[in-house]
TrEMBL record:
Belongs to the FMN-dependent alpha-hydroxy acid dehydrogenase family. The keyword Flavoprotein applies. The lineage of its organism: Eukaryota, Fungi, Dikarya, Ascomycota, Pezizomycotina. This is FMN hydroxy acid dehydrogenase domain-containing protein. Its cofactor is FMN. The keyword Flavoprotein applies. One of its GO terms (molecular function) is FMN binding. Signal peptide: none annotated. Residues 227-237 have a biased composition (Polar residues). Keywords: Flavoprotein, FMN, Oxidoreductase. Residues 11-413 form the FMN hydroxy acid dehydrogenase domain.
Length: 420
């Protein structure tokens, strides 16, 4: 039995000893619309699957007789000693999973000493999340809107609430095609709200239903000026069906506003750096060495190698496969993080060995939330923390900084093993 790490009060749940089991428990707790929205990837879902399977291509070379009695799993981020090199990735609309939503996640993160990313499309306000996080530094994920005023206000509020960084999501210039979401006509229930936009803008968010053709149903009582501004937008960023462009309608919803096809390195990164200072500006959704070099060139503070959990470009490289070229290109100039497919403590170890400084998890936290709210998120984090600690010890490492590629081999399809 793994002994609990210092300061972690969670005890084991004998019905749920792995993230796989957590996924199964969560599946029966969620309604179909939520389960499909959370779990699916874009198109056939092959990138989502490959994100997970990529970890199995690597095996660990354990070292022995090294006195591993004092293992330190912690990692530094924004000057904070995080209990392990892992954070909770921003995921939208957590109140779909549990009534306490992002607040429950924040409380669990505080308990487990783990940093949290908050989605632009959260169902709790960023101020309430900051308060629930206590001394844990938080990150606000940004979808930078074409109407800069909305983004400007959000950034100002994050600064005031003490957020340490903004993560600009750069893999969403258009929305990926999630077929179950379209088929289910995904709709935020009326009792929930996209919480971080002005009341008047937000008031009809719950009424938007996607019809899978890029248009959405007309919310009642919509203001004319908003309709005009979003008409321009949605004509280019809804779900796409070939060449057809559809007139948009409605207030700020993730279907209408997450995607921004106009974003560019030259104009937007400089704007954001100026606007967000003194918060750090990171880019989330880098998948190539070329873009990693551009990120360094444009003086961003950090990179998250991500394909949005396989929800955007299906057919894109698994993030673990993209990581080595990004880490090599960056060469330690700025931190390189990775997300996508992390489901076990050994996955954290492998990602670090391949050059990541830190990993983030998306769906496992949503499953924890659906299973048992705050307690379920704590359980999720505890399982990964215990597995990671055990992996470090059995591999012969006591410090996160010591994990490197010498601890891994790669196994190809024919079973051929190569050193890295
Ligand atoms: C239901 C769901 C909602 C998400 N919402 C956002 C979001 O609002 N902003 C964002 O940048 N990424 C979002 N993501 C992507 C995650 O931040 C992260 O990149 C991804 O979940 C990592 O993959 P994993 O789920 O395999 O751990 C979302 C992912 C899921 C599953
Ligand atoms: C891109 C739309 C906003 C929510 C999100 O990021 C997701 O569902 O993956």
């Amino acid at each position: 039995m793994v002994s609990p790490s210092k300061g972690q009060k969670q005890t084991l749940d004998l019905n749920c000893l792995t993230i796989k089991e957590l996924e199964k428990h969560a599946a029966v707790m969620m309604d179909k619309q939520t389960r499909d929205y959370y779990n699916e990837g874009a198109d056939s879902g092959s990138t989502l699957l490959e994100n997970i399977e990529a970890y199995a291509k690597y095996r660990i070379r354990p070292r022995v007789l090294r006195d591993i009695s004092q293992i330190d799993t912690s990692a530094s981020i924004f000057g904070f000693r995080n209990s392990l090199p892992l954070g909770v990735a921003p995921t939208a609309m957590q109140c779909l999973a549990h009534q306490d939503g992002e607040i429950a996640t924040a409380r669990a993160c505080k308990e487990m000493r783990v940093i949290m990313g908050l989605s632009s499309f959260a169902t709790s306000t960023l101020e309430a999340v900051a308060e629930a996080s206590g001394d844990i530094p938080n990150v606000l994920q940004l979808y930078l809107f074409e109407e800069r005023d909305h983004s400007r206000k959000l950034i100002a509020r994050a600064k005031k609430a003490g957020y340490k960084a903004v993560f600009l999501t750069v893999d969403t210039p258009m929305l990926g095609r999630r077929n179950l979401e379209i088929r289910n006509q995904f709709k935020l229930p009326r009792h929930l709200k996209i919480a971080n936009f002005d009341e008047d803008i937000n008031s009809d968010a719950s009424a938007t239903v996607m019809d899978g053709t890029g248009s959405s149903s007309e919310p009642q009582g919509q203001k004319k000026s908003e309709a005009a501004s979003s008409t321009r937008r949605q004509s280019s960023v809804g779900y796409h069906d070939g060449e057809k462009r559809h007139p948009p309608s409605g207030p700020i919803t993730f279907h209408t506003h997450a995607a921004n096809p106009t974003l560019s390195w030259e104009r937007d990164i400089a704007w954001l750096k100026k606007e967000a200072a003194p918060m750090e500006v990171w880019v989330k959704g880098i998948a190539t060495a070329e873009d990693a070099l551009l990120a360094v060139h444009h003086s961003v503070d950090g990179i998250v190698v991500s394909n949005h959990g396989g929800r955007q470009l299906n057919g894109a490289l698994a993030t673990l496969d993209a990581l080595p070229e990004v880490a090599a290109a960056v060469g330690g100039k700025i931190p390189v993080h990775v997300d996508g497919g992390v489901r076990h403590g050994t996955d954290i170890f492998k990602a670090l060995a391949l050059g990541a400084d830190f990993v983030w998890i998306g769906r496992p936290v949503l499953w924890g939330l659906a299973y048992k709210g705050q307690q379920g998120v704590e359980l999720c984090l505890k399982l990964l923390a215990d597995e990671f600690r055990l992996c470090m010890g059995l591999a012969g490492t006591i410090k996160v900084e010591d994990i490197n590629k010498d601890y891994l081999v790669k196994v190809d399809k024919s079973g051929f093993i190569s050193r890295l």
